[in-house]
Amino acid sequence: MASDNADLQRIADQEYQYGFVTDIDSDQIPPGLNEETVRHISAKKNEPDWMLDFRLKAFRRFSEMLEEQADPTWAMVDYPKINYQDIIYYSAPKTEAVLESLDEVDPELLRTYDKLGISLAEQKRLSGVKVAVDAVFDSVSVATTFKSELESKGIIFCSFSEAVQEHPDLIKKYLGSVVPYSDNFFACLNSAVFSDGSFAYIPKGVKCPMELSTYFRINSAGTGQFERTLLVADEGASVSYLEGCTAPMRDENQLHAAVVELVALDDAEIKYSTVQNWYPGDKNGVGGIYNFVTKRGACRGRRSKISWTQVETGSAITWKYPSCLLQGDESIGEFYSVAMTNNRQQADTGTKMIHIGKNTRSTIISKGISAGQGQQSYRGLVKVGRKAEGARNYSQCDSLLLGDQCGAHTFPYLEIENQASTVEHEATTSKISEDQLFYCQQRGLSEEDSISMIVNGFCKEVLRELPMEFAVEAQNLLSVSLEGSVG
Amino acid sequence: MLEIKNLFAQVDDKEILSGIDLNIGAGEVHAIMGPNGSGKSTLSNVLAGRAGYEVTGGSVTFEGKNLLDMDPEIRAREGIFLAFQYPAEIPGVSNDYFLKASLNAVRSHRGESELDAMDFLEISREKMKQVEMPDDLMSRAINEGFSGGEKKRNEVLQMLLLEPKMCVLDETDSGLDIDALRVVAEGVNALRNESRSMLVITHYQRLLEYIVPDKVHVLSGGRIVRTGGSELALELEEKGYGWIEAST
Fold it and tell me: Does A459 touch chain B (CB under 8 A)?
């Protein structure tokens, strides 16, 4: 097997595919965080007073939190203390003027997104499926495609900054309504310094005719990315939203602290899919993104539905719990997750399903894969409120271990205040068995292909929830992320 | 085809094979019989290259090449097929996806073009009929929830698809009722030809009524202690393994 090990080592040493840096002039503010920084960001965006007030309130609360205890310590992740004064809070590619059309986007940026496999040209992809893309580069949105086609249906899809200018009533109504600025440490920081992100509004009764997606790219050194996504599906509306992310390889850790808020009104449905592939750091744990993200959806209306699907393979540290507030009667929340940690990656991820309305239902399927010295925890809360009669939850948490130096942990929390409800929880931890591996190899498959096939099989219940195009990407990503994990 | 010379092997530092000599020519079917613990399954695992089975002496040559130097998947692609006694279950991976990947791995090693989904479907349907396998077993996860008989049929189906040069059947008859045994044996017999060799490992003579071997070897204490024609199997059945052990 000696030659095999050499092969595996070679593959393990392969570089992260998206680790390049785009050479482009940026408009940056100096590192550091104070009230001036917040005012500066707001001024750059020419924001109305109400937006600045929101930021300042968040900043003041964040300053208090920073004095009290700084970062939350309950998650099972370990990292050196972050100095929030060392971070650059705003970095944007320099542009001459406001862009009138996609043709005016800097060709260097277009090439960057091409290299990432994201087409900003308004053409159908090979599969014949249209996907509208909002491209966020460091702190700003650089392009949004298919806007006019969407507008004809009354759908708003634009950068967050544009929405603040063009649709202030919607922003005022929904911003912070699901994740209040004071919700948690990182959400609070985000509320103070967020620079851009995506906004979508699907009007009453409209089924969005194409997938909406945001592609996040961190480029500049020393910057943090703090974006904000807000999706609102009005009564009877439905939308499927995709999110992808990559970053260059650097020896330093970079902070990504995003907030995503979803609102579904009566009979509305939102499907939110993420393939997270931030730079994970090298195999010794140097560099990589700290992905500290707050995602929450409110099923505000009756029979509304929010479904989170995530495939998390990147980041040095992942800290995120996409959650559902099941407020409307008969509303449905779903969480399907695959999280993979290889080398020295750490992940503490899971969900919260808060049952408030009657006959609300939730499903949690979590698949964790640990390889190398990766450490990962599933942390999930199922809460059934006093009035949530007939609420039902089913949770299934499976962990797969590759090798003997990694770890998997499960922390389920249950808070049941209504006895007329049903909550089920199942958990398993397993290893890829030598029997399975040998069986595949005896049928001619290489060791790597065998492991990749077994892991994909393990994740099948989650992968099948992804939109077609994403599912293929996710499968490939799982294989790539596993490379070098055996031998 | 397969030449085993003075083969020694151990598992967990315990010697199991103690000098096996065996030559199987092209087109020949050999049976290995022996009591529990005589080393039958160890021999099949050593041939297929399973981790944990350490060869401590001797050599194995397959079509003139040193088999022991090859990784398990290379042995498989070169044409060694092991029909498992206990086929592994792999949740979430459908049988047809797996078989197609396997067939294409073997085909590309042989320098043949890979099959697309339609070609594969056509070929696999035909082979499934041969082993009387219901359609839905193809879309189910590999061996998961299969009955004992279905698992063994699935092994023979794979053998029919991959068309190996050397088939090693490890106690393929265990756990089969008489009807399933007949189907499995017919599948195996359909593969017999002048160039394909087989090594049939079994505890009982029953299987050899259906798959009639050219030679029968009796394994005991990690060595071949007797070799004969197919009549040896009948003699064993009559007199029991005690007869061999007493006479060696």
Answer: yes
Alpha carbons A162 and A47: distance in angstroms, whole number: 10
Antiparallel, parallel or unpaired: β B53-62 and B2-11: antiparallel
B86, closest residue in chain A (CA to CA): A435
Over the Cα atoms of chain A, what is R_g? 22
Strands B65-66 and B53-62: antiparallel
Cβ of B82 and A442 within 8 Å? Answer: yes
Tokens 């359909």 identify what position?
A: B190
CB A397 within 8 A of CB A426: yes
A422 touches B55 (CB < 8 A): no
Place of tokens 């040209």: A121
What does the block give as tokens for B144?
Answer: 């998961």
Residue B240, classified by CB atoms within 10 Å of its CB into exposed (0-12), middle (13-18) or buried (19+), is: exposed
> Which amino acid is residue A51, in one-letter code?
M
Q: Assign A210 a pLDDT band (cuts: 50, 70, 90).
A: confident
The CA-atom distances, in angstroms, between A214 and each of A71, A158, A240, A298 are 28, 10, 12, 20
How far apart, in whole angstroms, are the C-alpha atoms of residue B70 and residue B80?
A: 11
CB contact under 8 A, A1 and B162: no
pLDDT of A139: 62
DSSP string, A37-81: HHHHHHHHTT--HHHHHHHHHHHHHHHHHHHHT-S---SS---PP
Query: B77: nearest CA in chain A?
Result: A444
Q: Do A1 and B71 touch (CB under 8 A)?
A: yes
Rounded to 5°, angle at Cα A164 from A159 and A170? 100
CB within 8 Å: A442 and B87? no
Q: How far apart are CA A76 and CA A479, in angstroms?
A: 26
Average pLDDT over residues B43-50: 96
Q: Tell me the range of A181-190, A263-272, B28-37 where mean pLDDT is highest.
A: A263-272
pTM flag (> 0.95): no
Residue B230 is given by DSSP the state: T
Q: How far apart are CA B78 and CA A442, in angstroms?
A: 11
What does the pLDDT look like over A323-339, one tens digit per residue? Answer: 999 999 999 999 999 98
User: How many Å apart are CA A138 and CA A245, to the nearest integer?
Assistant: 11
Provide the terminal-to-terminal Cα distance of chain A, rounded to the nearest Å: 8
User: Among partner residues A3, A442, A459, which is closest to B72 by beta-carbon distance?
Assistant: A442
Residues 6+ apart with CB under 8 A from A2: none
Quick check: B124 pLDDT over 50?
Answer: yes
Gyration radius of chain B's alpha carbons: 18
Residue of A281, A340, A346 whose CA lies nearest to A474: A340
Question: What pLDDT, on the 0 to 100 scale, is given for residue B79?
Answer: 96
